[in-house]
Design brief:
The protein has helices at 17-22, 31-45, 48-56, 69-90, 101-109, 117-137, 139-146, 149-170, 193-210, 216-235, 275-280, 282-310, 323-339, 351-356, 363-375, 379-382, 387-402, 413-429, 432-452, 458-471, 473-480, and strands spanning 97-99, 174-176, 182-184, 345-347. The protein is mostly helical. The chain contains 21 helices and 4 strands. The longest helix is centred in the middle third of the chain and has 29 residues, at 282-310. Helix 4 (69-90) runs antiparallel to helix 15 and helix 6 (117-137) crosses helix 12. 63% of the residues lie in helices and 2% in strands. 52% of the residues are buried. The protein starts with 16 loop residues before the first helix and ends with a helix. A two-stranded antiparallel sheet has the order 1-4. A two-stranded antiparallel ribbon has the order 2-3. The chain crosses the membrane at residues 35-56, 68-90, 97-115, 121-139, 151-178, 190-210, 217-238, 273-294, 363-383, 389-408, 415-446, 458-476. This is NCS2 family permease.
């Protein structure tokens, strides 16, 4: 007796070439869900078109040069579009890409104090090439596995606290003082209109995020900007200066003469690949690259694993479809981001909002990427957003990143010591590199002298030795010189 072959379930059969390519039906999704998820991911990520230029244009490099705000907004949108679409087509996963907040803060507040902006972007490109090689050879996964989970999480938490601190400072909510070193506002109180706008925007955005309103950060930015425009139109607060201490910090919130314009992509290709090595020396430049690699390295892998689990695409080990391709493309994001001067691009945790709306495939990424391309033509709008409003988004994103601390076991001080140093040193020294290095050294020292040396991976010993050299690079360079 023969049994008739089982008929395929029509509900799981792909509906056309596009469905088959992205595996939409196979993953239990639909075109409607993918489009909806792609739009939601864009809405939750769109603030980066404003926030990345705010961060990168807020400081001058070692030669006194400053990046143009509108040009940065254009390349931020362009790079996010390219990388999001590329990741969707190759990795076929619903993870949006844009300029990473940890990397851009490190560039703006640490790296360009020593090198020029083109040289800094050259270091970003080198960082990306290293990540691509590590991913392609499998070494990235090996190194990631060698670093204890507590330290991986601590890096994210520390960057979150650092970003929040930058937001408070940019808003004038925290100011430098003689004793204590930092203080609240002016004379211990909120004393300027721009800082008050920051507080109101922060509270509104916090409430929206707490209520899980889709696009809460973007709504907060838009609402705060509208309020700032109204206040400026009525009271003419003006720009901050020697004769106007209570003015707006970076940009005065006034309506531009035109809302739509062709994107200015002049920053594309403004890269000096090896200039930093000649300016500050090979050792110092390598240490900066080393820090960029680590900052890029751990946050991206953790984020992708978490998103894959949320989408139901990861197995019990955290592996997900096309893992190797995903890691390689994430490295390419740094290369492309450096080449466009928009900073290293990486996967965004906000993609979880789109996944929550049903996104399961790379088709959602194509939708998100196309929307980023459209956003490039509205860059004049971003010039009206004052620093104080954008600072509120920084604080919210910092808080979201710090929430990861709940996954750290704080009962063992030999582990807590390294975690604490990582989280505390970043904002206190205004340096992500210092925080990561202090945490690694503290972890290895505390664990090794607590009888747990055998639990430390040989790779972690090597990385820690590199950070010891990083902290001693001044005397070492003097000796070499």
């Amino acid at each position: 007796m023969t049994t008739a072959p089982a008929q395929p379930d029509a509900r799981t059969e792909p509906r056309g070439a596009l469905d088959r390519f992205f595996e939409i039906t196979k993953r239990g999704s639909s075109f409607a869900a993918e489009i909806r998820g792609g739009v939601v991911t864009f809405v939750t990520m769109a603030y980066i078109v404003i926030l990345n230029p705010i961060i990168l244009s807020s400081t001058t490099d070692v030669d006194g040069s400053q990046l143009n705000f509108l040009q940065l907004s254009a390349v931020t949108g362009l790079t996010a579009a390219i990388m999001t679409i590329l990741f969707g087509l190759i990795a076929k996963l619903p993870f949006g890409f844009a300029a990473g907040l940890g990397i851009n803060a490190f560039l703006a507040f640490s790296v360009v104090g020593e090198v020029t902006w083109p040289e800094a972007m050259g270091l970003v490109v080198i960082n990306g090439l290293i990540i691509v090689v590590l991913s392609a050879t499998g070494l990235r996964r090996m190194i990631f596995d060698a670093v204890p989970l507590q330290l991986k999480i601590a890096i994210t938490v520390g960057i979150g606290l650092f970003i929040a601190f930058i937001g408070f400072v940019n808003a004038g909510f925290v100011t430098a003082a003689a004793s204590p070193p930092v203080a609240l506002g002016v004379g211990g109180s909120v004393a300027t209109v721009p800082t008050l706008v920051f507080v109101l925007t922060l509270l509104l955005t916090g409430i929206l995020v707490a209520r899980k309103v889709k696009g809460g950060i973007l709504i907060g930015l838009v609402s705060g900007t509208v309020l700032a425009v109204i206040i400026e139109a009525v009271w003419h607060v003006g720009a901050k200066g020697d004769d106007n201490a209570g003015g707006w910090g970076l940009s005065v919130p006034t309506l531009p003469e035109q809302l739509i314009s062709l994107p200015d992509l002049s920053l594309v290709g403004q890269v000096d690949l090896f200039g930093a090595f000649g300016r500050i020396g090979a050792l110092a430049a390598l240490m900066l690259v080393f820090t960029l690699v680590f900052t890029n390295f751990f946050d991206a892998m953790g984020t992708m694993t978490g998103l894959a689990k949320e989408a139901g695409l990861a197995d019990e080990k955290g592996d997900f479809p096309r893992l190797k391709s995903a890691l390689i493309i994430e490295g390419v994001g740094a290369v492309v981001g450096g080449a466009t001067s928009g900073s290293s691009n990486t996967v965004f945790i906000e993609s979880g909002a789109g996944i929550g709306e049903g996104a399961r495939t790379g088709f959602a990424n194509v939708v998100t990427g196309v929307l980023f391309l459209v956003a490039m033509f509205f860059t004049p709008l971003v010039s009206i957003v004052p620093t104080e409003v954008a600072a509120a988004a920084l604080v919210i994103v910092g808080a979201l990143m710090m929430s990861q601390i709940r996954f750290i076991d704080l009962t063992d001080f030999s582990a807590l010591f390294g975690v604490f140093l990582t989280v505390a040193v970043m904002p206190m020294t205004y340096s992500i590199a210092n925080g990561i290095g202090a945490g690694f050294i503290g972890w290895v020292a505390a664990r090794a002298f607590s009888g747990k040396a055998r639990e430390i991976s040989p790779l972690l010993w090597i990385v820690t030795a590199g950070f010891v050299i990083f902290f001693a690079r001044g005397p070492i360079e003097a000796l070499i010189g």
